């Protein structure tokens, strides 16, 4: 059975220089450097199996980055952006940044200013206050706790 040759990749001189600069920079993340190596080897005419052996990666990875480079080359996207991860699928965030910032501001303020007969906020009290003020339609105390923990905000301390 005949095997299909990988799609040929021909870099412009500008793209090649940009990729080589990325490789020579000490601050380039390893993932980006590896992807740049894949593209440079593909440009030299190496097939995916040769790239796999030389870089000790899977053939699937070599194929993915060759195809992604070719796909993104059609658009005018910067070299570094072509090598970065694409946004992952998943459920979008339920709360906007503004709502989360309002939660943080609320957590850093005195509960007594809002007519709460407590000295320190609890996650439950914060969740109730956010709904009462119309910041969010609903939010669980557990989620409030997680957001505060991520931001290392401790309203009880």
Question: Which short descriptors sum up this protein?
Answer:
0% strand; mainly alpha; 157 residues; elongated; 8 helices
Give a structural overview.
This protein is mostly helical and 157 residues long. The chain folds into 2 domains: 13-83, no CATH class; 97-150. Helices cover 55% and strands 0% of the residues. It contains 8 helices and no strands. The protein has helices at 13-24, 30-43, 48-55, 59-73, 79-83, 97-107, 123-133, 141-150. Helix 1 (13-24) runs antiparallel to helix 2, helix 2 crosses helix 4 and helix 3 (48-55) packs across helix 4. The longest helix has 15 residues, at 59-73.
Low-confidence stretches: none
Distance between the amino and carboxyl termini: 70 Å
Strand content: under 5%
Number of domains: 2
Mean pLDDT: 89
- 3D shape: elongated
The topology string of helices and strands comes to HHHHHHHH
How many DSSP H or I helices?
8
Instruction: Supply Rg.
Output: 25 Å
Structural class by SSE content = mainly alpha
Largest sheet: none
The portion of residues assigned to helices is 40-55%
What's the total number of strands? 0
Q: Any chance you could write out the topology, listing elements then pairs?
A:
Layout lengths: L12 H12 L5 H14 L4 H8 L3 H15 L5 H5 L13 H11 L15 H11 L7 H10 L7
Quick structural overview:
The protein has 157 residues and is mostly helical.
